[in-house]
Design goal:
Length: about 300
């Protein structure tokens, strides 16, 4: 007994193979006069469908989709008469339906009540599909009319490794989308940098003073310092640069000498007394750099 899913997959494969084969063949006709393809496209499709059915069902007792999935029609049921009727009901019926749906004038579209017949066949095909889902024997109306049953030529093993891999990947992607925004990359980078450039700190007897020259640049952005600040070392920083780094990592050190100072001081505090230090530190915490002035 052939599973329903195998017969349906074979039918879908036949449709895809037919579309690919006809599409590749029609590309040849683009080099010919356009009237050939415009006037004879349906006839060319019918001929190609006939060739595909002949070299599959007539020769191998199975369509190309069935051969890929390891099933075939039972040879004792597929007689010569049924082969002719199979070609007529598949290729001929599809050709007539295409002619009816084509808005151009042709002798087939002029036949009265032909559209009604096509609609009735579509409704019967739908009922046959519902009956197939219940019985699992004839997936198409042609096979039911000709009593063409199918049999397996090999055992088909349906594996779910691809589906499992997709589920694992989607689950991993959702986990990354949830966790990545929670990681502080700048702080992690600073911690790795501190470990890689770790040197024992020596207690200096006196604090080092930053050196301000006309050519001095910020140790972070390498530009002219804007509102210069320092960390009690010989390097200066822009207010925006050092405040941003400290907001990301409270233990941010000087990238040049790796000196750490918990208080960020403005350049005015280099030579001013302790009140100036308290003033600029409070202004920095409030984000009000307009109040950082000399007392």
């Amino acid at each position: 007994m052939v599973p329903r899913v195998t017969m349906l997959d074979a039918h879908v494969l036949d449709d895809h193979i037919s579309k690919i084969f006809i599409g590749q063949t029609l590309k040849i006709f683009k080099y010919l006069p356009s009237w050939i393809l415009n006037n004879c496209e349906l006839e060319i499709n019918a001929i190609l469908q006939f060739l595909m059915t002949y070299y599959s069902v007539t020769k191998s007792k199975a369509t190309f989709g069935q051969q890929m999935l390891g099933i075939r029609f039972k040879p004792d049921q597929l007689t010569d008469t049924k082969l002719v009727l199979f070609q007529l009901f598949t290729v001929g019926a599809e050709y007539i339906q295409s002619k009816v749906e084509n808005p151009s004038n042709n002798f087939i579209s002029n036949i009265s009540n032909l559209q009604l017949i096509v609609d009735v066949l579509k409704a019967v095909s739908f009922l046959n599909f519902l009956l197939f889902l219940k019985q699992g024997k004839y997936p198409t109306l042609t096979q039911r009319f000709l009593s063409l049953s199918q049999e397996p030529t090999r055992q088909r093993n349906i594996e779910y490794t691809h589906m499992t891999r997709e589920l694992l990947w989607h689950g991993f992607s959702e986990l990354l989308l949830f966790t990545l925004p929670l990681i502080n990359y700048q702080s992690l980078k600073h911690k790795i940098s501190r470990v890689m450039h770790f040197t024992p700190r020596k207690e200096d007897s006196k604090e080092r003073q930053p050196l301000m020259f006309p050519v001095s640049v910020c140790s972070i952005c390498q530009e002219r310092p804007v509102l210069p600040h320092h960390l009690k070392c010989s390097h200066v920083f822009c207010y925006y640069c050092i405040s941003t780094k400290r907001m990301v990592d409270e233990k941010f050190e000087c990238p040049e000498c790796h000196h750490f100072e918990p208080n960020v001081l403005c350049e005015l505090c280099i030579e001013k007394h302790h009140n100036a230090i308290k003033s600029c530190t409070g202004s920095l915490n409030r984000g009000d750099f307009n109040t950082i002035t000399s007392p």
